[in-house]
């Protein structure tokens, strides 16, 4: 039976800018072919056993030719797959969807188009630049700086009174500026270059048409170029951008760096995410399945991380285990983030230590339980042994099931000038050192908890513990540190 292809716009940022329809389709697809410009965090919605196929499509680095992509979509659908073609931004804004649709029609493959938030509007908006403003610009044009034949004449836009938004044009910024001036536009016309839009790394360089190329020469791609009177505006709530001018690198798992980076960026910080810590799920679920079959025999379940909680509930769904069997079993979480993961599944943690460490969780459990009780510890294979140590010393029985392990993988570069480096775990500190990253001499080290800080002090000789020990606490701590206030 023939499958179906959904051409889904991923939007221009992370999962928060994906449409609900797009999320729904990703959660039910059997295959996804995704662009390089689509945020990789969105792929978390794709089922684990679905095929994930990278097809590139970043300007200057088209890893798969367009004809081959179209052919791939047809082949997948004809083999019965439910396919999501995940495109950066919106499928119909320079997305080559017409070529893919033509191939699908020719093969008789059904398809559906799902709009996405286009960077041509959203990225300037997030930089405080409106693309229209009734006093100075009653319209805007979206222009690609790269065409199929490689030729583009920018002079023709020189007399435009509308806001001009150029996509895929950073490498041609000199050419764009010169062409517009030759076409009659004033060299004093305001212009802006917005790099890595809708991400914690978003940067905006403002200038005039005559000097924007020089000012933006070090701007990274992808970038949006805005030309016109509105590009001089900044309609952001600058009164609450308490970290404007502050640079921060966030080190840890993808989920930690994404959440913490977003919170810092919302306060105006320039953020670099280093997702060095990779989660490797334990494929052998026999021990967990056995524990689930007799979960009522445990006095308490101890969750030492959000990841462990999420994997636990994923297995419950896969095995169709009955949550009612948890009645009477105490639920212990190492910290507020882990407790929040339980709440997302309708359960409230009975025990959360004031200090978010495995040792503190062990102390809390030993105070609540007695000899003869039994605890199931759901943990990271590479995690701290302190919880089990304290239970053993107190004579409380326990069983440890490692649900996942961590490994390290270099990802991105650390800026030479960085105000703060944030670590979400002791593993993040180890990965940072093992992978050869060098801590900037002037950078303050902020850690989510005492265990992480202990590892950082050993590695770097300094660390400040966030108060409270959460992503929100990290932001508050950096704000205090940036203002030279006492924590």
Secondary structure: helix percent: 25-40%
Tell me the fraction of residues in β-strands, as a range.
15-25%
How many helical stretches?
15
Structural class by SSE content? alpha/beta
CATH class of the largest domain: Alpha Beta
* CATH 2nd-level architecture of the largest domain: 3-Layer(aba) Sandwich
What is Rg?
Answer: 26 Å
Termini separation: 63 Å
CATH topology of the largest domain: Rossmann fold
Give your account of this protein's structure.
With 487 residues, this protein is an alpha/beta fold. It folds into four domains: 4-117, Tetrapyrrole methylase, N-terminal domain (Cobalt-precorrin-4 Transmethylase, domain 1), CATH 3.40.1010.10; 121-235, Tetrapyrrole methylase, C-terminal domain (Methyltransferase, Cobalt-precorrin-4 Transmethylase, Domain 2); 240-276 and 409-482, Rossmann fold (3-Layer(aba) Sandwich), CATH 3.40.50.10090; 281-406, 3-Layer(aba) Sandwich (Rossmann fold), CATH 3.40.50. The chain is 31% helix and 21% strand. Strands 3-2-4-1-5 form a five-stranded parallel beta sheet, sandwiched between helices. A five-stranded mixed beta sheet has the order 6-7-10-8-9, with helices on one face. It has a five-stranded parallel beta sheet with strand order 12-11-18-19-20, with helices on both faces. Helix 7 links the parallel strand 11 (247-251) and strand 12 (270-274). The longest helix has 14 residues, at 306-319. The radius of gyration is 26 Å and the shape is globular. 44% of the residues are buried. The mean pLDDT is 92.
